[in-house]
Each structure stands twice: as C-alpha cells, then as structure tokens.
Amino acid sequence: MAEILVLYYSRYGNVAQMARYIGRGVASVKSCRAVIRTVPAVSAEPEAVAAEMPAAGPPYASADDLVRCDGLALGSPTRFGNMAAPLKYFLDGAGDIWLSNKMVGKPAAVFTSTGSLHGGQESTLLSMMLPLLHHGMFILGVPYTEPALRATRSGGTPYGASHLAGAESNLAITEEEQQICMTLGARLGETALKLMP
Prior knowledge:
seven-stranded mixed beta sheet; alpha/beta
C-alpha cells in the first residue's frame, strides 16, 4: 500500500477543498491511500501557540508524516507569487529530514489557489517545488494528455493543479479544476507505486 501525504495550508478553504480532490485521485489508484494533513497558521505574536489539533478538518502534519509517506502533494494559497508563510515555516523545520535523506527518490506534486488569474499561480507552484528538489524528490506535473488542462478557463497548469478563487475567495472549484486535481493525485499514486521497492 502506497501512502500519499496531501499536505497543505488553507486560509479560506479553497486549498483544503483541492486537497480533498487530490486525495480522491490518489484513492482511485488500487493500493494507494491518501493521508490529508494541514499546518497551523503562524503569528506575529511571539506567545501565540496553536492548539495541538485544529478545531475542524484534518490533523496538523508532523515530521513523521513526511518520513513515512511514499509520495507528497504540497498545497498553498499564493502570497505575492510565493507559498504562504505557514507552509514555508513547516518546511523550514524539516532540516533534519533533509540531512537524513529520507525524502530522496519519492514523487511529489504541488497545487495552489489564487485570487486572480494572473495572481502568481505558476510562480507559487514553482516556489513549492524548490524545497522538494532540495530533498531529492521527483517532481510531477500535469501532462497535456489530461483534456481538462486544455479546456480550463480558470486554474490548471502543467506545473500542478491550480484554482482561481476570485477576489473574495468565493469562486467554486470548476469541473476542469476538480479533474486536474484528481488527475494529479492519481498520477502521484501511480508513480509512488512504481517507485516503491
């Protein structure tokens, strides 16, 4: 059984919803299971401490989740064309995993949501790829064999799944965006199975 970690930060729920579609794609592959995790928000207040478990949704990720997974889907809303600080903070704390080479050779993919069509979808996806490359992971994108990639008028790139949430972060995930998420999840699961010893 291949375990795919779908790890994300979501402020308005759009990235969380994408994570669920990616999880469905993973689960569509026989012998694959999606483990969905999130990260807590960061605060400028030094004394602010997040609860050990979020009030709703999936549990917070731990370093063990990264080590244990056979593949990783990493998601974040865009922040000025970059991943959001909470996800970067979590990844910045994975130096010991990097030193131990425990992520080397695992497949990984990325996904994002933006407020505007040209709000940094591709640069955010690329920013999330950088630490994954440092960990020695294999980066997967969405091939143009996925018809929804050519049909979409909102999110969706060959670099990873994306969603156009709108200025109020209230646009529903389109059918094409859903399909791209599920395709990415299935591709990640299939690749993880092929790479397992």
